[in-house]
Amino acid sequence: MKIFVTGATGFIGTHLAKRLANSEHEMHCLVRETSICDCLNDLGATCIVGDVVDKDSVRQAMQGCEWVVNLANIYSFWEANPQVFTDVNIDGTRNVLECALALKAAKVVHVSTFLVYGKPEDCPFTEESPVGPERFSEYAKTKYRGDLIAWRMYEQKGLPLVVVYPGGVLGEGDDKAS
Q1: pTM score, two decimals?
Q2: Given a cut of 90, is residue 138 above it in pLDDT?
Q3: pLDDT tens, 125-134?
Q4: N or C: which end of the chain has fewer CB within 10 A?
């Protein structure tokens, strides 16, 4: 099966790519022109230059893929131009999911973050708890808005969606922790 992956050069993405390389699946990875793709190339992935903010490049790269894994996001504590959070985490998410719908992907995995929950009223909170009324970073705010788009496409258009909400992701090779 052909699996389309955005964000494959990121921390979680490289771990996913290594797992997929040890399976019968074929990886097609959307990578930016500035991406270092040596690891993906060594794993046998097909790297296609594009960007989630460019819907045409997403659609072209996704052609023929049955599953989509959307890991692309801007995750940082601060950006000189905060518009980049909106461009990637909201508009880029919309582009990837709209292309998945148009190309009739059989499954879409959207990787979000537990930070979209903000501070829920329930303590402890569960998967059934409503999200809190406030998110505490531009990253969390834009990921939340991207999730709303994803869930709306699921409910209104039948997007075959799975959303994953990882917590703090740390480990060897994580350059954000240093």
Answers
A1: 0.92
A2: yes
A3: 887 888 888 9
A4: C
